[in-house]
Amino acid sequence: MWRANAKGMRHRYTVGLSAAARGDFSQSREADGIPEPRALRDSADQPDPAKHPVPDAASETSFRPLGAILGWVFPGLGHIASGNAKRGIMAMAGVLLLFFGGLLVGGVDCVDRTEDRLWFFGQVCCGPIAIAADKVNEMQLKSGAAAPLIETASYPGQPKVFVSPFKGIAHANEFGTLFVFLAGLLNICVLLDAAVRPPSSDGPSSGRRAVDGGAA
Amino acid sequence: MTLAWTPFLQPAPGVQHWWWMLVVPMALGVSMAYKAVRTKDLADWPRDVLRMTLQIVAAVVGIAVGLYVLVILVLPLLPAE
């Protein structure tokens, strides 16, 4: 008796395993005599497609490098070029507020490719405007064109050090550098969004964010 | 001194005294750029920006108050040795 039961169990086990290996789990369930769950059988219990839309193949997110490049050339330009002008202008306003706010607080000295190299790596994500600010810093402040350079304290035996009297120090320099750095980091988000957002998708009921519902 | 200030070339005068106020424009700029990307209905953008700005400022003020309580009030209560 127990041998017959053991044989039957082994048969069901091998049938179920071979079916599962082929990816057919219904056969393994049938072989084990396990009924299908009611929720899977009854189509009425499936999620409402209107409430939980599944993106089709046409709306799959695709990466467009041109949008990212244009977004680096000038903040928000990637969105504007892809037909999302309003969204691009809003992003541009935020990034430029931080960028020029930083320059206003700390002066162009807060963008310095040689003295603040690590900060500059983030700042240059704003695009050519950050490179231009660094060039203005070199041509106007560091060269002494804007104001004659003054000598500062230096170690004995070391070469004399001259700096511009317009050089930012303390909180002014710290906040200016931070503002421009934040502008660069946020522009990374903006240009990546420009690269993956569907063209001309501004609106309350369209676009990638509208599909996945991630607004907050 | 203020009259001789050249914007964008020189640092803004008096920042040493009101630097802590800069958290407001910083939070505003971050919120504007971030919400331009995340807001699904652009009509909600101003409201979302205002809300996120207030959240950031409130969080910074909360951290400042917490650190003040910790450093000024709590830590001096600890025994010297």
Describe this entry's structure for a reader.
The complex is a heterodimer of chains A (216) and B (81). Chain A is mainly alpha-helical. Chain A is built from 10 helices and 2 strands. Chain A has helices at residues 2-21, 25-32, 38-41, 65-73, 77-81, 85-106, 117-123, 128-142, 170-196, 208-212, and strands at residues 150-152, 161-163. Chain A folds into 2 domains: 2-53, no CATH class; 65-212, no CATH class. The N and C termini of chain A lie far apart (64 Å). In chain A, 56% of the residues lie in helices and 3% in strands. The longest helix of chain A has 27 residues, at 170-196. The model of chain A is unreliable at 13-17 and 205-216 (pLDDT under 50). The radius of gyration of chain A is 31 Å and the shape is elongated. In chain A, strands 1-2 form a two-stranded antiparallel sheet. With 81 residues, chain B is mainly alpha-helical. Chain B has one domain (19-76). Chain B is 62% helix and 0% strand. Chain B contains 3 helices and no strands. Chain B has helices at 15-18, 23-38, 45-74. In chain B, helix 2 (23-38) crosses helix 3. Chain A binds chain B through residues 86-88, 90-91, 93-95, 97-98, 100-101, 103-109, 140-141, 146, 166, 168-173, 175-176, 178-179, 182-183, 186-187, 189-190, 193, 202-204, 207, 209-210, 213-216, and chain B through 6-12, 15-16, 19, 22, 25-26, 28-45, 48.
